Amino acid sequence: MAAINIIDIKKNYGSVPAVRGIDLSVADGEFIVLVGPSGCGKSTLLRMIAGLETVSDGEIQIAGRNVNKAEPAERDIAMVFQNYALYPHMSVRKNLEYGLKNRGTPRTEIDRRIAEVAEILEIGPMLERKPRQLSGGQRQRVAMGRAIVREPAAFLFDEPLSNLDAKLRVQMRVEIRRLQRRLKTTSIYVTHDQLEAMTLADRLVVMNGGLVEQVGTPVDVYDRPASLFVASFIGSPPMNILPLEVVRRADGDGLLTLPDATDTLGIRPDDIFTEKPSEPSIRLDAIVELLEPIGGESHLHIRLDESNQTAIVTVPGRPDFSEAAKIPVYVRVASIHPFNRQTGRRTDDL
Predict the structure, then answer these.
(1) What are the distances in angstroms from CA 175 to CA 142, 182, 198, 201, 272?
(2) CB of 69 within 8 A of CB of 127?
(3) What domains sit in the chain, N to C, each tagged with a CATH number?
(4) Is residue 306 pLDDT above 70, yes or no?
């Protein structure tokens, strides 16, 4: 196992910057998730750590060693890809042992590692099958097994679940987290799926436009987003972003006390209520536009104050609201997030 340090890393493709100066320290045994929209630079950063992309500037250290010029095979890492990257003409057993044989690992040690991995991942009955005889989830298990048998210092995952159906993604997500906790191997995982990121990570690294927007535990990032981008990206449904004046107009009791630079407010859908809460709150008049029942709760789409500002409210159960109905909603004052639209940052962090 090993710590990974990324120091002012940059990657340019000609004159186009893909990664624009990132600093990140990953502790020994930590599970870090890089999350962000397509094109934000997360996969490029992962590939630079793996040695599959050259570094334009900065330094990557694995276990305290500068690996900028080291070949991928010299970095003591194992990578799991979204397309499994299995050899189709080889059995599962031969896929698992291929890298070990190339390294000259003794036969007895190869057999020991394969037996251990087959038990951990429950792929023992599949060892003599070819990849084409396996389901998508089974192939992903084999791909992870091939990484595990190497006993590397770190695992790198590049959107490994993106080719699986929704039910299997949930199952494999749980298996990956359970596996990482058992092995305690330093891991960096790339995904664009914020739910996947929230449930897997010890810490999230939220990226946008080649930069890091915020680093923190999933709970910290959800509860206190550092920027408008993070506020909009993390959370499902996403945070409601409203101009300050929409809420200020309704604040008859003067409950809002905000930093001077605030001109935009963020409000989570589950911090807006259709009944007045016991905590200090501000009433807003709303018009129902759409009700989406999604099982144990519903998403209520509303238009505020007869304006063009819309919001989503998460409500329990299946309430009986008709479209175009006028209803009051209540915003908890303590749950309002203050931002400045020009800087894109929280104003209570300044």
Answers:
(1) 13, 10, 15, 13, 35
(2) no
(3) 4-232 (3.40.50.300), 239-339 (2.40.50.140)
(4) no
Instruction: Specify the pTM.
Output: 0.92
Return the amino acid letter for 324: A
Query: DSSP 3-state assignment of 273?
Result: strand
The pLDDT tens digits for 112-127 are: 999 999 988 889 999 9
pLDDT band at 259 (very low <50, low <70, confident <90, very high): very high
Give the pair of three-digit tokens for residue 203: 């810490």
List b or e across 287-322, with b for residues whose CB sees 16 or more CB atoms inside 10 angstroms.
bbeebeeeeebbbbbbbbeeeebebbbbbeeeeebe
Q: How far apart are CA 114 and CA 316, in angstroms?
A: 48
What is the SS3 assignment for 291?
A: strand
DSSP letters, 65-116, are EE-TT--GGGTTEEEE-TT----TTS-HHHHHHHHHHHTT--HHHHHHHHHH
Q: What is the dihedral of CA 305, 255, 237, 168, to 10 degrees?
A: -160
Angstrom distances, CA of residue 196 to CA of 28, 166, 193, 200, 261: 22, 11, 5, 6, 34
Question: pLDDT band at residue 1, thresholds of 50, 70 and 90?
Answer: low
Q: How far apart are CA 188 and CA 98, in angstroms?
A: 24
Q: What is the token pair recorded at 92?
A: 């599962």
C-alpha to C-alpha distance for 154 and 216, rounded to whole angstroms: 20
Per-residue pLDDT, averaged over 279-296, amounts to 93
